Amino acid sequence: MESNPPVPVVCAIIMRDDRIMIAQRPPDKKLGGLWEFPGGKVEPGEAAKAALHRELHEELGCTVRITRTLPSFVHAYSWGSIELIPFLCALTADSPEPHPHEHTAIAWVGREQLRAYDLAPADVPLLTALV
Predict the structure, then answer these.
(1) Are 100 and 106 in contact (CB under 8 A)?
(2) 78: left (phi over 0), alpha (psi -120 to 50) or beta
(3) Which of these, 56, 72, 90, lies nearest to 129 by C-alpha position?
(4) Phi and psi dihedrals of 115, rounded to 5?
(5) HSE (CB half, 13 Å, CA atoms) of 21?
(6) 13-41 in b/e burial notation, b at 16+ Cβ within 10 A?
(7) Alpha-carbon distance 129 to 28, whole Å?
(8) pLDDT tens digit sequence for 114-123
(9) What is the mean pLDDT of the chain?
(10) CA 89 vs CA 2, 45, 47: distances in Å
């Protein structure tokens, strides 16, 4: 049986002071109601960093500067696998305040509070790097 390659997905760990922004997925989408580090799929031929900037502009209306690229990893869901490509980021000085255009809500939480949120399964391994 031939399996499809993992879908490349970027995510932003946006830091502000000692807080990290997370976003809640809409109830009508896959993993609805779960919290995640915002981002999305990398389009064919698109660079991961470009995808991150595009997704954050579309989903949150904000701009970031990437401060560090974390190691990517593959996470398997029942419906398929993703290659999660995480970036540590900060809002740019001229960025509008993030607003949940495609999410139900956003929250700025301390590192120690992250475990209290019901995170999407692919985002859970990032807690080890952050907490």
Answers:
(1) yes
(2) alpha
(3) 72
(4) -65, -20
(5) 25
(6) bbbeeeebbbbbbeeeeebeebbbbbbbe
(7) 30
(8) 999 999 999 9
(9) 94
(10) 36, 23, 17
What's the pLDDT tens digit per position in 65-100?
A: 999 999 999 999 999 999 999 999 999 999 999 999
Q: Say how far apart CA 36 and CA 93 lie, in whole Å.
A: 24
Cα(51)–Cα(60) distance, integer angstroms:
14
DSSP string, the chain: ---PPPEEEEEEEEEETTEEEEEEPPTTSTTTT-EE-SEEEPPTT--HHHHHHHHHHHHHS--EEEEEEPPPEEEEETTEEEEEEEEEEEE-TTPPPP--SSSSEEEEEEGGGGGGS-B-GGGTTHHHHH-
Structural domains of the chain, ranges and CATH numbers in brackets: 14-130 (3.90.79.10)
Residue whose token pair is 């698109």: 46
- What the block records as the tokens of 47 is 């660079």
Q: What percent of the chain has pLDDT over 90?
A: 87
